[in-house]
Amino acid sequence: MEMATYTAFKRLFKYITGANENGANIEITSPVIIKSKTNKGWFDSCTYTMSFLLPSEHQLNPPRPSDIQVSITEMPGMNVYVKSYGGWMMSYRARDKLMDSLESVGAMYKKDFSYAVGYGSPMKMFNRHNEVWFVAEGTPVCPATAA
């Protein structure tokens, strides 16, 4: 996982620093979003998809990436259940805690994948802000006791 996210970050960073059809430098935004399969066994392979959000001036007509392994995708609007946490972005503990909370209140959500979301620079060592997201299915459940 660490190697996959490092490789993906390098590819996306090259894209925003000029490896695109216009040679455009694009301002980095936050959050960085990593979609990953949720229920995987120890020996299952997993696909991680890292995304950078494009600034508004590039959203309608983004420059085409030079690297064929980088693509432009549109993320649909969605309702998500969120748990915030500190530390490093790829924490399975936060994901598991959110899953437990959702299960305890009978929330309906997409269980086959989750998003790890980071709002700070990967160079920042302290006071980091991250989130884990699960996509809600139907009307979100938000009781006061949900964590």
Task: Please tell me about this protein's structure.
- The chain is of the alpha+beta class and 147 residues long.
- It has one domain (2-135): Regulatory factor, effector binding domain (Multidrug-efflux Transporter 1 Regulator Bmrr, Chain A, Alpha-Beta Barrel), CATH 3.20.80.10.
- Helices cover 22% and strands 20% of the residues.
- It is built from three helices and five strands.
- The chain has helices at 2-16, 56-59, 92-104; strands spanning 32-37, 48-52, 80-85, 113-118, 130-135.
- The protein has a five-stranded antiparallel β-sheet with strand order 2-1-4-5-3.
- The longest helix has 15 residues, at 2-16.
- The chain is globular.
- It starts with a helix and ends in a 12-residue tail after the last strand.
- The model has no long low-confidence stretch (mean pLDDT 88).
Q: What's the layout of helices and strands?
A:
Layout: H1 2-16, E1 32-37, E2 48-52, H2 56-59, E3 80-85, H3 92-104, E4 113-118, E5 130-135
Antiparallel strand pairs: 1-2, 1-4, 3-5, 4-5
What would the keywords be for this entry?
147 residues, alpha+beta, Multidrug-efflux Transporter 1 Regulator Bmrr, Chain A, five-stranded antiparallel beta sheet, 22% helix
Proportion of strand residues: 15-25%
- Count of the domains: 1
CATH architectural label: Alpha-Beta Barrel
Averaging pLDDT over every residue, what do you get? Answer: 88
Could you give the order of the helices and strands?
HEEHEHEE
Distance between the termini: 27 Å
Write down the overall geometry.
globular
CATH-defined topology: Multidrug-efflux Transporter 1 Regulator Bmrr, Chain A
> How does the major sheet shape up?
5 strands, antiparallel
Specify the structural class: alpha+beta
Radius of gyration: 17 Å
SS elements, strand count: 5
- Number of discrete helical segments: 3
Please give the order of strands in the largest beta sheet: 2-1-4-5-3
Uncertain segments are none
CATH classification, class level? Alpha Beta
